[in-house]
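Provenance and format

Records in this collection were gathered into a single text stream. Each protein contributes a sequence line and a C-alpha cell line. The two records reproduced below are adjacent in the stream.
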Amino acid sequence: MQEGKVALHKAPFDFTKGETSALWLKVLEQLKTGDMPPPDEKNQPIESERNSVIEWIDRQLLTAGSGEAYRKKLLAPEYGNWVDHEKLFSGEIQTLPFSPSRLWRFRSEIFAYKNFGKAKSPFTYITSERGIRDYAAMSLADQSTVQMTIIVADAFLAEREKRGDFKDFANDKPIPGEDTLQGVIRREFLRVIGRYPTPDEQNKYLTFLKQSITMGGNLDGLRTTIKAMFLSAPSIYRMEFGLGEADEHGRRHLSSDELAHALAFALTDKAPDQNKFIREALQHDQLKTKQDVARLVQQLLDEQLTTGNWDRKDLSRIMRFFDEFFGFHRAGAVFKDNDRKRAERIPQWNTDMLIHDARMLIEHVLKKDQNVIAELLTTNEYFIAHPGNNEYARERYEERIAEVMGSGYVEAQIEIRRGQISRDFNFVDMPEKAENALKSARKDAEKTVAKYKTALDKGMHPFPSYPFTRKSRGIGDLLYIEPYNLPTNNRIQEQKWDWPLEQPLQMPKDQRAGLLTHPAWLAAYSLNEDNDPIHRGIWVYERLLAGVLGDVPPDVDAVVPTDPHKTLKERMQPLRAERCWKCHRKINPLGEPFEMFDDWGRYRKDHYFDEDGKIYARRDGEFDRKLKQGELSTREADASGSIDFSGDPKVDGDVKNAVEMMHRLGHSDRARQSFIRYLFRYLMGRNEMLSDSKTLIEAEQAYLKKGGSFKSLVVSLLSSDSFLYRR
C-alpha cells in the first residue's frame, strides 16, 4: 500500500545525493517507530525482515557518508530506545561489549564538592529535565563554560588573596626558590583538579609558572598559572581512555585510577579520595580486575545504599536515578492555581512532602532489595507524613505524647512565648499586645492538649509533628494529605485520620499500585488545570515498554479542544483522527487509565456535572450542598485503556484502569528490561549499542538470580565489559 505520495519501488538508490539520503532517512524513521507499513495494513513484515531493511538503509547511509545528523541525534538520551529491544535481549549478538574512549565533562553536582566556596557551577545540562541528564557525548565545554570557569577562578583567587594565601609571592619579595615553586604547583593542582599532578604535569606547570613570573611578576605569574589549571582538560573533563592493558580484541581496560574515578562519579558526586571504600581499594591496589570492581561495588551498596538523608546521600547518584527515571521530583514545577486549591478542597498543596513520601517508599523497597522493579511499580504500601524510620518515629511520638499530656505543658508553652516576647522589639512598651499574645499562646496550647486527648480517647495515634533534623523532614501537620484521599487537619484541629505510627501503610489495593499511582508522580505528569494523559502515556510507552516515537511534525497542533461539558477523555477523541492516531495509538491507551485520578492525585470514581451539564470541579462546602440537594449528576470516570506493545500476549490487552495496567506491566519482562536499559544509560552516560547485548542480558540474569535484587543489578552493570573497557 502506497501512502504519503512515496512509491518505494521507484525510489532512487544513489545515497551520495542529499535528496536520496533524506528520503531513506524518513523511511528509516518510519520503520524504527513501527509506522511503516501502516499499522492497519494486513501484510505486516516479520521482525527479522523489518530489521534487515533497517540495517540495509543504515549501511548504505554509512557507506555513502550520509546521515551524519541522524547518527548524532541518536546519541541523545531520548533516542536510546531506537536500538532494537528484541535484538538486545535475544542473545544472538556475540560482539564483545565496550564503551567508546571519551572525555566526559563534569556535572554541576560534582562541582559543588570541589570546595570553591559559593561559586556558581560553570557546568549545566543541555539534556531534557524529564529524563536522564548526564550524557558524556552531549556534555561539552562551550564558550559559556570557559567564561564561567574564568569567573570561578577569579573569585577563588580573590578570596585566597584576602586570606593571605599568596603572601610568599608578593611582588616586593624575591622570586621564591625551587622547592617553594615545586610545592606550590603540587598544592594548587590538588586544590583545583582534586589530585596530585603526574611528573609530566608537574614539570609542565613548573615551567609555565617560571615563565609567567618572569613576564608578569610573582603574584600575576602565580595567578596565571592557577587559572591555566582551571582551564585545563582535567579541571573540566573526566578522562576515560582505557590506560590499562589492551586485550586481543583491541579493547583497553580502564586503569586503576580511571576505575576509581569512574566508580566514584557513577555512584556519588565526590572524587575517589572522598569515599573511604574507593580510596582504600585504590591504595591497596585492589582495583584491577572485574572481580575487584564487583567486590568494591557490592561493599559500597551494602554499606551506603540508603545511608544519609535524601538530599545528601552517600551514594547520591543511585538515589538521583530514581528521580530522573520516574520524574516525580518535578511535581512542584507544575503550577496549580490558588483559587482551585480552595474550591477543590486542597487545604495545602505541599509537593515537597509528596515527593518526600515517594522517596521514603523507594528507600523502603531498596532496603528489602527483593523484586525491586515490580515492587516500585505495583506496591500499595506507602509512607505518609512519616520520617521513614519506624524506630525514630516511635521515639519522637512517645516523647511528644509525654510532653503534651504532661501536667505542665500549657504553662511551659506560655513561658516559651513569654521569652519570645521579651526578645521581640515589636512588643516593647506594649503590655496589652504582649498580654494578648500570651492569652493566644494559652489557647493554642489548650487546643493542642484537647486534640491529643480526643485522638487518644478514640484509640487513634495523634500526629506528633516532626522537626527538621537528619532523621526527619520537618512534617508539621496533616494538612497536605488530601491527595491520598485522606482527611486533613492542621496543628490544632481535631484529627480525623488515625495516623499509623508504623509505616509503610496499606493503601486500598483497588486505588493504588506503585509510584505511577502516587500523588507525587501524578502531579508531576499533570497540567495546570487537568491531567496529562498524553505525557503519562509517553512515559509508560518509552520507559516501561522501550517504545519508539517519531519526532512530532512541526505543523501538528497538539492542543486538546476545550469543552466544559466533556471529560478530558471525551475531548481527546479528535486525536483518534487518522493523521494523529499513528502516534497517539501508542500513547493514549496507556495514559488514559490514569483518569481514575484527578490532577491532584486523588482517586475518583465519578465525574460530577452541574445543572447545565458542565463538569463541576468544586469539592468545598458548595459542592456538599449541591450534592445533598440533588443539583449534581454523575458519570463514571472512564479509565479504560490497553497495553499493545509489551511483546507478551499475556500482558497485552484491554485494562480497566491504571491499577490493573500497573500490575500487568510491573511483573512483565518488557518493563523489567526497559528499566535495566535506562539504568544502563544512567551509569554509562550513553545510549546502549547492540554490542552491549551481553552486558544487558547478564545484568537481567544477575537481578533475577538474586530474587530481583537492585544491588545485584548495579554490581553487574558496573563490573561489565561495557563499563570496564574502552575502544
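Adjacent record:
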Amino acid sequence: MIHKFGENLLKYSVVFFIIAFSQINAQNTRDTVTFHQSYFKQNYIFSNFEKQLNTYNLISHLKYGYKISGLFTGYAQDFVSTVTKSSVNNIKDEMYIKFLADYEFNENLSTGFLFAKSNYADDRRLAINKSDNTNASVYLRYKPTEKISVIPFGGYAINNQIGNEDKGFTYGAEADINTLPLSDFFLSGKFRYVNEDISPRKNTGENYGINIKNDFDNNLTNFLSANYLLNRKDFYIEADSVLSEKYNIENNIQSRVETNNFIYDRIEFSTADKNILFDVSGRLNWRLIDRSTKYVDIDNITNSSFDTKIEEFKIDFASSLNFSLGIFSGFFKLLYSEREEKHNAKMIPGAGNVIYQRRQELEVQKNNQSQQTTAALSGSLALSRKDNFSFSLFHRKLKYDTPSPENFDDRDELLTMAQLTYLRQINSFLSVFANIEGSFNQIVYIFAERSSNNNIRRALKFSAGSELNSSIVRSYNEAEVSANYTVYDYEDINPNFKSFSFRQLSLKDSTVLQFTKKVAFKFNGYIKISEQGEFFWSRFSNRPIRYLEEKNFEPKLELRLGILKLAAGVRYFSLMTFGYKSSQLKKLDSEYQSIGPLSEIIISNFGSLQVKCIGWYEFISNEKKQKRELANLFMQVNWSL
C-alpha cells in the first residue's frame, strides 16, 4: 500500500581492433544505423487515440520480426500525430519506419539490407517545419568469435528539409564486444562510425565506448567505462534577401558539432551475506557544442552574425550504502557535483573587432559555475508483524555563480525534505496508515539586483487512510491536509513580491463492490478545498484572497463477459472559485460544471491482446449560465504478437 554490466592471439586481436577503430575520423551514431535482429525480437502492436477538449492525439507503434531457416526479416513503425483545433488549426505529424532483412550463411558470417525512413511535418511557421529522411544500406556482419562482431556498411540517402532535397552516399562501420573474458576481467565495447555525404550538407557521427569489469573477489567489483561521442548535423535555415542575392542561395546552412567525452569508475563491495552493499563512483565529463553558419554577409555584420561555442566540464562523485540488519533496513546516498559552462562568440574573418567584442560580452554573461551536494537517507523498521515504521530524509545544497559582472543570477539554494510513515495491518483484510511530511526550501540571491526574489518556502502535509481488501469489497480511502507558506525577505521594499500561503484539504475514495464474478460497482472520486492568501510570518496569520472547491466523481457499473468488459456510469466534475469581500465573506468568481454519461469497452485476452475504448460526453455550464456540449474519446490497442 505504501508501495519497489582467451588466448594471446585473441587478446592481441582485440587490442589491434580497438586501436584501429580509434583512428577513424568522423562522428556520432544514429538510430537508423543499427543492424541487430534483437531490435525486432519483441513483436507487438500498440495504438492510442485520445481526444480531449480541442486536442486530438494519435500514437501508434508496430514491431514485428520473423525468422525462417537462415533468413530474418523485421519491420518497425512509429507514428505520432497531434491536431489542435482553435482559431488557427495546427497539425503535427512524426513517422519513423525501419525494415531489416538479414541472411546468415553460417554462425560467423551474414549479410543484409536495412531501410529507414523518417518524416516530420508541422504546419506552423517554424525554422524547420518539414523534413524527410530516407536511408537504404547493405551490410556484412563478421563474427570472428562469439563475443565480437564487425559490421561494415554502405548505402544511399535522400534528405529533404524545408523544400531542399539532398542526395548522397552513406558509409561506415559498427562493432561490438560483448562481455569478452580477458584474464581476470571482462571487456565490453561498442564502436560506431557513419558518414552521410549529402552535398552541400554533411552529417557524420561516431561513438566509441569501452567498459571493463573486474571481480577482485566474490565481494569486490570494479567497473570502468570510457566513452567518446562526436556528432555533426547540418541544417538549412532561412536566408535573408541580401544573402540570397549575394550568394545565389535560397537557404543558408548551419552546422552543429557536438563532442561529448566521459570517464566513469565505480567500485562495489558487499558482505558475504549481502546484508551490506556499498559502492563509490566518480565521473568526469567534458562537452563541446560548436555552431557554424556557412554564409555570412561580411559587409553587414551585426551581433547576431557571430556563431557561438559552448564548453562544459562536469565532475560527479557518488556513494551509496544499502543495509539490512534484522528488523531494520535502510539506504544512504551521498552525491557531489561540480559543473562549469563557458560561452564564447566565434570571430568572423574581416569583421570589426568592436562588434565582435560586443557579442563576446553578451556570450560571456552566460558563463556559469555550480556546485551541488545531495544527501538522502531512508529506512524501514518492522516493529512487529503488523506494525511498520518508515522514514526518509533528503537534503540538497546548490551554489550557483556567474563570473560576469553583468550577470546577477548568483544564488544559493537549500532544500530539505523529511517524511515519516506508520503502517498498521489490522487483520488480513484491513490496514491503516498515517503519514507526515515536510519541506524547507530557501533561495538567496547574492547581489542586490536580484535579492528581492529571496524567499523561504515551508510546506507541511499530513495524511491518513485505510485499505480494505476482501472478496466483496476493495476500498482505498485517504484524507490529506497540506499547507504551503512562501515568505519573501524584502516584501516591504518591493510591493510586487507578496508572501503567500496555500492550504488544502483533500478527500479521496476508490471503492469496488464485487456483487458477483461478472458484476461489480466501482467508484472513484475526490473533493479538494483550497485557500490562497497573503501571509504574514511575523504573526503567523493570513488574509484570504482566493478560495477553491473542486469535486470529481465517477460511479460506474461493470459487467464481465469472458474477455469482454463493459462499463457504464456518470462523470461529474465541478470547480468553483471565490474571491473575498472581507476576511470572512466569500463571493463567487467563476464556476465550471460538467456532467455526462461515461462508457468503457475493454477486451483483454490474457495479456496478449488488449483493446480499450473509453468515452464520455459532457454537458458543461458556467457561472453565467452559458451551456455547451463536448465529446471525449480515448482508444488504445495493445497486441503482443
